[in-house]
Design brief:
The protein is of the alpha/beta class and 263 residues long. The chain has eleven helices and eleven strands.
């Protein structure tokens, strides 16, 4: 039974709330004609798509492109497009985008962020507050753009502040007003990874730290920055994985949604 049918029965008084919850949480054994069962599960043999994630979590599942063939990416995006108003694919190459656009003409590519969007981004709420994405250096911008564009697609009001790392701290301090106006901040840094601690000590907003793989040999591909951020003495700083701009944006959007005056 589909969730829509369950809700209709509750509305008509034919099903109790307790019984509806039990049915909604159960996993049916057989899919419907479209290949999706009532719990939002689509089986493509090589992938099992969580088509109910947007309803359950608030944001749709995003396709991670590395390791997938062009055909698999197209099939996954096409199937999601049937049930979602927007579909996002991360870490996509220009060559992969060309294949996707041939099958899905409304696809759009954000080259700096390496993201493919199929569909229309969500509209930002005027009272949602500003998400500020801050990068330590210019080399960190690709990861910062992945965070910024993802958050914009998810309906956040995003501003950018790039190349303000601690090697020239005056660049950051001249933007102190912007930092303190933000309701959440994503900081993206490689090398010594010190930027999140500095920002966290200056603002009241939650800070999400993204270590990047930018740096020389002893940076160990971002591990050095990761450990610095995990050991931050500044409270209110949370850390995601190395180069994971998408994860930072998802967390920031979740925080801002929970802090929205409309919630």
């Amino acid at each position: 039974m589909k969730l829509e049918d369950i809700l209709k029965q509750v509305h008509a008084g034919e099903l109790s709330i307790e019984a509806a919850l039990a049915q909604a949480n159960s996993t049916p054994a057989t899919p419907d004609a479209s290949g999706t069962d009532a719990a939002g599960f689509a089986d493509l043999d090589f992938a099992r798509l969580d088509t109910a994630r947007a309803e359950r979590r608030g944001f749709p599942e995003t396709v991670f492109c590395p390791g997938k063939t062009d055909e698999q990416i197209v099939q996954i995006l096409s199937r999601f497009r049937e049930s979602e108003s927007l579909v996002l694919a991360s870490r996509a190459t220009p060559e992969q985008f060309a294949v996707v656009r041939s099958a899905l003409p409304d696809a759009k590519y954000f080259e700096a962020a390496r993201l493919i969007l199929v569909g229309k981004p969500r509209e930002a709420q005027a009272d949602a507050g500003i998400l500020l994405v801050v990068s330590a250096g210019t080399s960190d911008i690709p990861v910062a753009e992945e965070a910024a564009v993802t958050a914009e697609i998810f309906g956040q009001r995003v501003e950018r502040l790039y190349d303000v790392g601690v090697a020239g701290l005056h660049r950051l301090l001249r933007n102190l007003d912007r930092l303190r106006e933000a309701r959440a901040i994503i900081t993206v840094a490689g090398m010594d990874g010190a930027l999140p601690s500095v920002v966290g000590g200056l603002v009241a907003a939650p800070v999400i730290a993204v270590p990047t793989s930018t740096g020389y040999g002893a940076a160990f591909g971002g591990v050095s920055a990761l450990l610095t951020m995990l050991n931050s003495c500044s409270p209110g700083v949370a850390v995601v994985n190395i180069d994971n701009g998408f994860g930072a944006a998802y967390m920031a959007a979740t925080i801002l949604r929970s802090r929205s005056p409309k919630v």
